Amino acid sequence: MSVETIPLPGAELRLHAAFLPAESADATMAALMHEVAWTQRPIRIYGREVVQPRLLCWIGDPEARYRYSGGDYEPEPWTPTLSVLRERIESVSGARFNSVLCNRYRDGNDAMGWHSDDEPELGARPMIASLSLGVTRALKFRPRKGFEEGRAGELPLAHGDLLLMAGDTQRHYQHAMARSRRITDERINLTFRLIHPRGA
């Protein structure tokens, strides 16, 4: 495993390349395919209801309820594989997590639009730990309106890579994963978070 600080102005990005070695990443991805209750839910975008362009599952401690794109998410219980991953990622990041959003991209037609992980439940300067499994895909960044020092960029995330996003990253940037006709293989992305109870 190698650790690299990604130079993006106003962001705190640390990449742990090959956080999971290839054999461990293979076994983890295979386990998650079966352990996680993958679903595809509608979301509201600009007042219009559309189906999410990927499969998801929200998992966490009982109090880790989450509101996202107009929908309320009650957490599913932790699976054995995700419980082990949480402990390992907490150890390397120095942060605590009580939930994880599991995303499954079946091929390059599945995608994630521009957004910031800045919901009130995450706090002002959240740590987001993003573990990638499967085919390599690029996470794109662009500065949010008003952050003139920022610049656009992209970061390829490979099988077993762990990206830590902290500090003012979510306040200054949006990120996305674009569609690609060239990609025919699957990818799983796990974003570990700490949800604060509403009103806390």
List the helices and strands and how they pair.
Layout (H helix, E strand, L loop, with lengths): L1 E5 L5 E6 L4 H14 L6 E4 L2 E4 L3 E6 L5 E3 L2 E3 L6 H14 L5 E7 L6 E4 L12 E7 L2 E7 L9 E5 L4 E5 L2 H4 E5 L9 E7 L7
Antiparallel strand pairs: 1-2, 2-13, 3-4, 5-8, 6-7, 8-15, 9-14, 10-13, 10-15, 11-12, 11-14
Name its key features:
alpha+beta; seven-stranded antiparallel beta sheet; four-stranded antiparallel beta sheet; 16% helix; 200 residues; Jelly Rolls
Model description:
- 32% of the residues are buried.
- A seven-stranded antiparallel beta sheet has the order 1-2-13-10-15-8-5, covered by helices on one side.
- It has a single domain, classed as Sandwich (Jelly Rolls).
- By secondary structure, it is an alpha+beta fold.
- 16% of the residues lie in helices and 39% in strands.
- Strand 1 and strand 2 form a beta hairpin.
H-E order: EEHEEEEEHEEEEEEHEE
Q: Tell me the Rg in angstroms.
A: 16 Å
What is the end-to-end distance? Answer: 37 Å
Low-confidence stretches: none
Outline of the structure:
With 200 residues, the chain is of the alpha+beta class. Helices cover 16% and strands 39% of the residues. The protein has three helices and 15 strands.
